[in-house]
Design goal:
Blueprint lengths: L43 E2 L10 E2 L10 H9 L7 E6 L18 E9 L13 E7 L7 E5 L57 H5 L1 H11 L7 H13 L1 E2 L2 E2 L4 E8 L3 H7 L1 E3 L14 H6 L5 E2 L2 E2 L1 E5 L17 E6 L15
Parallel strand pairs: 1-2, 3-5, 6-13
Antiparallel strand pairs: 3-6, 4-5, 4-9, 7-8, 10-14, 11-12
Helix pairs in contact: 1-5, 3-4
């Protein structure tokens, strides 16, 4: 049923830096008195220290690339076979794509894939366009879109598996076990020379990625992901494997053409952040190729720097899961991304 994944808005006890109505230990006060101090924080990011005694929060698997909810949302919005849905870290480009915006949180973009950014001698088929919603900042710069996917790559932080010796950690883990291949800053589990080594002399092709030996390596590494919650485990494995197929090879740094668009209704039901109307055009499912995007006025560069994708999964609570960081107007209390507890369940308004 369309919208069957729709939830109440994010909880006010999960998405604020501090909560005025909370009195520590007073169960009759806001958030049941579960705050570090009177009128203080009632939750914390798994990638920060301090704030003792409040729930710890992570990114949610429901808005991961190829999550069941994201796939169904694309179908329900009428885009089956035209777009895949994702979320991405994106820093605002105030002179071009994001002109006039106070920040990029919860903005949506249509991305059309062109060519690999670094594997320049590779012959790869671009994946179908993505519709992405911005969920993180301090990601990959104003021209970057850092796509959230299973085993997409650790960076500066690590709340996926504290037992891995990568990234700054605060003792929290969303997973019981997690692959070390391609960690950190090398993109996680992917076919390339810095990870699963399916390449030929540093370059890839559709045939190399699709080969049985490469897919066995990918599947084996992705299936080392384990979690106490079976849905969290299976959705992450699925995202990891599906993003590394020759026909849907998003797990690469691609040059893209980009356009800011109105967020589709069902995408925002998955993520939890619903912006007020901004007068933006709807996504155009007829624009599928780089040539079509260029003709339609999509942007490809900023100061000679290409718009591009990178990949990530650090499991941290996203920047835009704090409503304090969402500067654009929102509607109906859907004022931030959902955050999740370690079991992958969103924290929603009761």
């Amino acid at each position: 049923m369309p919208g069957g994944y729709a939830l109440p808005p994010p909880s006010e006890c999960s998405n604020q830096f501090s909560v005025d109505g909370c009195k520590k230990g007073d169960t009759s006060s806001t958030c049941g008195g579960e705050c570090t101090n009177d009128y203080g924080p009632t939750s914390k990011n798994a990638c920060e220290g301090g704030k003792d005694g409040v729930p710890v929060q992570f990114a949610c698997p429901r808005y991961m690339l190829f999550a069941n909810e994201m796939e169904q949302a694309a179908i329900d919005d009428g885009f089956e076979g035209k777009f895949n849905y994702a979320v991405a870290g994106h820093d605002p480009d105030g002179t071009n794509l994001d002109m006039g915006l106070p920040d990029s949180c919860c903005q949506c973009y249509q991305l059309v894939f062109d060519a690999p950014r670094y594997l320049t001698n590779s012959t790869l088929t671009p994946p179908k366009p993505l519709l992405v919603q911005s969920f993180n900042t301090q990601a990959s710069g104003a021209t970057g879109f850092d796509i959230y996917m299973g085993a997409g790559g650790l960076g500066a932080f690590n709340a996926c598996d504290a037992d891995l010796n990568y990234g700054t950690k605060f003792g929290y883990s969303q997973y019981q076990t997690y692959p070390s291949e391609g960690q950190a800053f090398n993109g996680g589990v992917k076919p390339g020379p810095d990870s699963m080594k399916c390449d030929d002399g540093g370059n890839l092709s559709d045939a190399l990625i699709a080969s049985g030996s490469c897919q066995q390596k990918i599947t084996s590494a992705c299936n080392t992901i384990t979690a106490a919650d079976p849905t969290l485990q299976e959705e992450t494995r699925k995202s990891c494997i599906q993003s590394n197929q020759a026909t849907s090879y998003y797990h690469e740094n691609w040059k893209v053409l980009a356009k800011r668009v109105a967020c589709p209704e069902h995408l925002t039901e998955v993520t939890g952040c619903k912006l007020a109307p901004q007068g933006l055009p709807a996504p155009d499912p007829n624009i599928q190729t780089a040539a079509q995007a260029k003709a339609a006025g999509f942007v490809s560069t900023l100061n000679n720097e290409p718009y591009h994708t990178t990949t990530m999964q650090d499991c941290c609570m996203p920047t835009c899961a704090w409503k304090n960081n969402v500067k654009s107007a929102t509607v109906d209390g859907y004022n931030s991304f959902y955050s999740c507890r370690s079991d992958g369940k969103p924290v929603v308004k009761k």
